[in-house]
Amino acid sequence: MQADGEFDLIARYFKRPSPGRMLGVGDDCALMPLSAGCELAVSTDMLVEGRHFLTDADPESLGHKALAVNLSDLAAMGARPLACTLALSLPVVNHAWLEAFSAGFHALARESQCPLVGGDTTRSESGVVLSITVLGEVRRTHALRRDAARVGDDVWVSGTLGAADLALRLVLGRLPPDPERLRATRPALDRPTPRLKLGRYLAGVAHAAIDVSDGLLQDFGHILKASHCGADLWLDALPAHPALADLDESLRREILLAGGDAYELCFTARPLWREQIEVLGRQLGVPVARVGTLVRGQDLRVLDGAGQVVPVAYRGFDHFSEPCGDIA
Amino acid sequence: MQADGEFDLIARYFKRPSPGRMLGVGDDCALMPLSAGCELAVSTDMLVEGRHFLTDADPESLGHKALAVNLSDLAAMGARPLACTLALSLPVVNHAWLEAFSAGFHALARESQCPLVGGDTTRSESGVVLSITVLGEVRRTHALRRDAARVGDDVWVSGTLGAADLALRLVLGRLPPDPERLRATRPALDRPTPRLKLGRYLAGVAHAAIDVSDGLLQDFGHILKASHCGADLWLDALPAHPALADLDESLRREILLAGGDAYELCFTARPLWREQIEVLGRQLGVPVARVGTLVRGQDLRVLDGAGQVVPVAYRGFDHFSEPCGDIA
Question: Which residues of this UniProt protein bind Mg(2+) 5 (chains A, B) (predicted)?
């Protein structure tokens, strides 16, 4: 592998011209200014082959998704992307794979104005491991923190829930083959859309937000725990993806309430803002559904159409509790 | 592994109280302000078991080193540490290992005022993979960029060179056993000291800097390439670690010029600053050696005591060019 030096790989696949005020790939550190009145928002996620993506995953989609799931954390904080770094560990240098991966990555980086400014490539003995750190900025006091929800807030969810989880079950053969349903849901699994604009416009308006990556109940539960609130969620108000329509009811509920990989925002806001949030959703072309209310206490109740409590025993995905080798 | 949830691992080993103005582990993003007049400096490095550290590496030293090599990038930029994130992929949950690793990590984080503010834990099928991102701040226009060296600058190296590389050769059995030499050099390999204070005081004084991680010639070569300069380096002026004293001369040269893992700063500055830099080194207790001068052209020449050119054919370490399974 004579010519495939670490530095050549970075230059070839990852170095891009940096925006004006920024020093990007090729120094000890990347440098960038922050806007006046803003603070820095930072998030890191790691994706492991065979665990977060399949070995035969389409590399272009993987490049998109690896960045998208990180950008989703900025969205959930109400932050505007500034830049990202990528650490990439590869068992072999496969140029076709790198070409497609970097194309998917850079396309979303461009679209999100989140240029790659640094990183590391190294060789691993086993599968591909990706670690991405995203940097953003958010106006001081406007960040959508998990501990900022208040009793009386409305609970909202963007987009629809369940498509990615359903697609994953079909891909893994955990449901009987269903090409039509797979076609309708696979894009949600492979190329999730981080809700960056929605998050930015909600900053300063909403109280708390989180992105739904491990399942609605688990992720929303983090807000409740951090904010010392309880909540009632209305099952029938949850924005189910159309492909869930005629599933077995208990499976449908499980996917809605505990399905991972949705990358939609779950946020809370004063009822005062109800109409403005609906208008905002229409302006951005992002559906927003009001799905519950925050109450005193610490219980998270799911209510059916008749106001009856639906027993839920679902937990989201937790990498160290699940059986080895699972994909999340 | 009932209770070893991902969230429990983060809470138990990695969550620490965050400094006053900062939001740390436990939200979608960490938040932090930047000082007025500063820009953000960011760097990411990945460490792979069996490649960057041995499987039986002492976990406390590993925790120290993983952060140290990243802080060294901030030092080489002249930046003050703000915070760091850690992504950690583990084949099994070994509490003794995590305890020791996080102790080594946090001890250096505290000492360097670089708190861990975010990250990710996941399970890998194979070895441990670590990815760390460090964030720092540096006064605008003061950063020690690689492309800022000028013809006529002095070339300087901090500390001593060669100890870590010599220790690694002894550990790997590439040199005959020599317990005394190993005792003298092993700390340099296991617990390198990032030159943060030196870097910060050089910001605004020196022109360009880089940290010596892949070998002096290779790393210094990046400055020359980015700054469009050549250089003469004086072999006899290079600050060799005492343990190199009575080595075979060609091995000694190879270790001095191409030995990795030194994490000393190589920097360039106007001759005007010569005396101040020497005083600074004494004040900080960090030896600084003047080892060469920048010249027109693009050649990097190494000269012996008689002013004769020493033929060098060394290359530093490049993860994708070296034989598989090597440790760097």
Answer: 214
In Å, what is the CA distance from A73 to each residue of A277, A321, B118, B131, B238? 20, 23, 12, 18, 47
Residue ranges of A 49-68 with Cβ closer than 8 A to chain B = 50-52
Establish if B293 touches chain A: CB-CB under 8 angstroms: no
Domains by residue range for chain B, with CATH: 6-139 (3.30.1330.10), 146-303 (3.90.650.10)
B146 touches chain A (CB under 8 A): yes
Complex prediction ipTM: 0.83
The distance of B174 to chain A (nearest Cα, Å) reads: 22
A5 at B interface, C-beta within 8 A: yes
Strand duo B265-269 + B154-158: pairing: antiparallel
Backbone φ and ψ for B200, nearest 5 degrees, come out as -65, -40
**If you measure CA to CA, which chain B residue comes closest to A124?**
B48
Nearest to B73 by CA among A42, A120, A221, A298: A120
CA of A307, closest CA in chain B: separation in Å? 32
Contact across the interface for B123 and A44, Cβ inside 8 Å: no
Burial class (CB in 10 A: 0-12, 13-18, 19+), B72: buried
- Closest residue, chain B, to A121 (C-alpha): B46
Q: Between chains, do B118 and A324 touch, taking CB under 8 Å as contact? A: no
Residue B10 gets which letter from DSSP? I
* pLDDT tens digits in sequence order for chain A, 328 residues long: 233 455 567 667 777 666 666 676 677 888 888 888 899 999 998 998 888 888 888 999 999 999 999 999 999 999 999 999 999 988 888 899 999 999 999 999 999 999 998 888 888 777 899 999 999 999 988 999 999 999 999 999 999 999 999 999 999 999 999 999 999 999 999 999 999 999 999 999 999 999 999 899 999 999 999 999 999 999 999 999 999 998 999 999 999 999 999 999 999 999 999 999 999 999 999 999 999 999 999 899 999 999 999 988 655 444 444 433 323 2
